[in-house]
UniProtKB/TrEMBL annotation:
Region Disordered, annotated ranges: 98-117, 288-344
PROSITE patterns in the record: PROKAR_LIPOPROTEIN (PS51257)
Gene3D superfamilies assigned to the protein according to its UniProt record, in alphabetical order: 1.10.287.1490
Keywords: Membrane, Signal, Transmembrane, Transmembrane helix
Biased composition (Pro residues): 313-328
The organism's taxonomic lineage, starting at the top: Bacteria, Bacillati, Actinomycetota, Actinomycetes, Micrococcales
Residues making up the signal peptide according to the UniProt record: 1-35
InterPro entries given in the database record: DUF4349
Composition bias type Low complexity, residue spans: 302-312
DUF4349 domain boundaries: 67-275
Entry's transmembrane regions: 247-279
Protein name per Swiss-Prot or TrEMBL: DUF4349 domain-containing protein
Coiled-coil portions: none
Length: 344
């Protein structure tokens, strides 16, 4: 029983020591973060005091160079061909070490000349040079930029990440020296929690660093709008002038059409005259042949009506009158008359 009691007491002491070390590590991390924050605030306060007291641009330039700024902006340009200009803009940005995060294009259709929109990520140090190259694509309609100071956020993230890394290293050292299962489990859980928090802060740091190092510019490329003018006449003189111009235009077009058809009409006239001459010549030859050949002797006909027309034919006999049919005989009286009925 005494051995069991002593073992239990030893375990309790180990757990107490480990717990105390974890609390001490957390307290140390908090103190380190507070110290870093205090130092950063003190430095910022000193810089502000120096700027206020001195007020010289040469003294303020080094402080501005240490600032972390997230620059965003928009650029609107009117070009002749938006799609071709978009390709050139992407090439300019990529040559400078940037990239295109988004691209939207609309093909020309009807009176719309098309458009293109690009989200450009440009290195902050080369922003002015790249924008000057983009301006050469066409006529700049508007250009605006905004800068957001994230120096405090960057400083806080750096302090938190350095503190968590130191705390994680200490827990890993305790885990390497631990021998009890419960102590190992406790330390592993604490280490996993610290590592997850550290990875989250490092991801935020990478995202913030990307925003600071690469400025974001939204580029819009469009064509000149098509304006439809209303040229309809408004007064009597405008109508008269419009009618006169219409008449002159019609006559001009008619003369052009006539000039285009005149060679064909001449060719058709020549062909028509040639055809008429050929037909007349053929008719003349046919008439000459008919006059040169003797007339044929007509054959005797058996038709009395045509005898008179033939030379040397005898005169036809006079037609005889048709015989008159005899009159019908009178009906004879019956031999035996019908007897009359006796009188009453």
């Amino acid at each position: 029983m005494s051995n069991r009691g002593e073992g239990t007491m030893r375990r309790m002491r180990r757990i107490g020591v480990i717990a105390g070390l974890i609390v001490a590590a957390g307290a140390l991390a908090g103190c380190s973060a507070s110290a870093d924050t205090s130092v950063a605030n003190a430095n910022a306060g000193n810089a502000a005091q120096v700027d206020t007291k001195v007020g010289d641009a040469a003294a303020a330039a080094p402080a501005a160079a240490d600032r972390s700024l997230v620059v965003t902006g928009s650029l609107y340009i009117t070009v002749e061909d938006p799609l071709a200009a978009a390709d050139k803009a992407a090439s300019i940005v990529q040559t400078a070490g940037g990239r295109v995060d988004a691209r939207d294009e609309t093909a020309p259709q009807g009176r719309d000349g098309g458009s293109a929109s690009l989200t450009l990520r440009i290195p902050a140090d080369d922003l002015d040079k790249v924008v000057d190259d983009l301006r050469a694509l066409g006529t700049v309609d508007s250009y605006a930029t905004q800068a957001r100071d994230v120096t405090t956020e960057v400083t806080d993230l750096d302090a938190k990440i350095s503190t968590l890394r130191a705390s994680t290293d200490r827990i890993q050292g305790l885990l390497a020296d631990a021998k009890d299962i419960k102590d190992i489990i406790t330390l592993e859980n604490e280490l996993a929690s610290r590592q997850a928090e550290l990875q989250s802060l490092e991801a935020q740091q990478r995202g913030l660093h990307d925003q600071v190092s690469m400025s974001t510019i939204d580029l819009s490329l469009t064509t000149k709008p098509v304006v439809i003018a209303d040229n309809s006449p408004q007064t009597f003189w405008d109508g008269l002038s419009s009618g006169w111009h219409g008449l002159v235009a019609f006559i001009s077009v008619a003369l052009v059409v006539i000039g285009a058809l005149l060679p064909w009409a001449a060719l058709g006239t020549v062909i028509t005259i040639a055809v008429i001459a050929m037909v007349r010549a053929r008719r003349r030859r046919a008439a000459r042949r008919a006059e040169a050949s003797p007339a044929p002797t007509p054959a005797p006909t058996t038709n009395p009506a045509l005898w008179a027309t033939q030379p040397g034919a005898p005169a036809p006999a006079a037609p005889q009158a048709p015989a008159t049919p005899p009159a019908p005989a009178e009906k004879l009286a019956p031999e035996h008359p019908t007897p009359k009925p006796p009188a009453a």
